[in-house]
């Protein structure tokens, strides 16, 4: 079964707008990670937030984590056409790492 | 350069003909995994390995085998492929509680 579930499934915005994606998970975590996938290519790690952190930034990315609600959000500010991709959250446990179905983001120029 | 290498990138085969997809990592990672990706279903884990000679089933292990004889290699074996195994496959490796590194993917078609 999938551990992380992203919402929405698809998101379409104009260049320059902000994009927000959400992730919900089911069990306790050590950390939560966000990945990006360009069409048909391997996933690329974006950012890792530990369970004792509430917010983390990396360039135009901002990730929040609410362990009481078992949820996380990824905000991409000032989006660009090149941000068009699928975004996944993942929650590794001791043995494996499972991904949700992802959010498909389309940024229109 | 840190990387996970999968081969082949593309493969078309016939039903029942055994095949192996190789995966190798150069980062001395303990954990390695295989995923398949199908439209609308995201990534589903097939098998994973916590270290040499330690493997376990993921969510969709039927029809697949793996082995981990060396730390760097984690091949995926389809002993009798069927058309429902047509998919995009990814290998990934990581250390404990760190990010995963993914291979470039293998697009498999079984006819």
Could you explain how this protein is built, in words?
Chain A is built from no helices and eleven strands. Chain A is mainly beta. In chain A, strand 4 (31-37) and strand 5 form a beta hairpin. In chain B, 0% of the residues lie in helices and 51% in strands. Chain B has no helices and eleven strands. Chain B has strands at 4-7, 10-13, 19-25, 31-38, 42-51, 54-57, 65-66, 76-78, 87-94, 101-102, 106-110. In chain B, the strands form two sheets. In chain B, strands 2, 4, 5, 6, 9, 10 and 11 form a seven-stranded mixed sheet that branches. In chain B, strand 4 and strand 5 form a beta hairpin. The radius of gyration of chain B is 13 Å and the shape is globular.
What is the succession of H and E elements of chain B? EEEEEEEEEEE
- CA radius of gyration of chain B is 13 Å
Largest sheet of chain A: 6 strands, mixed
Give the averaged pLDDT of chain B, no decimals: 95
**Contiguous runs where pLDDT drops below 50 for at least 5 residues of chain B:** none
Most extensive chain interface and residues per partner: A-B, 25 and 30 residues
Largest sheet of chain B: 7 strands, mixed
User: How much of the residues of chain A is beta strand, in percent?
Assistant: over 45%
Structural features:
heterodimer; A: 109 residues; mainly beta; 6-stranded mixed β-sheet; 5-stranded antiparallel β-sheet; 11 strands; 56% strand; B: 111 residues; 7-stranded mixed β-sheet; 4-stranded antiparallel β-sheet
Please sum up the structure shown.
The complex is a heterodimer of chains A (109) and B (111). Chain A contains no helices and eleven strands. Chain A has 109 residues and is mostly beta strands.
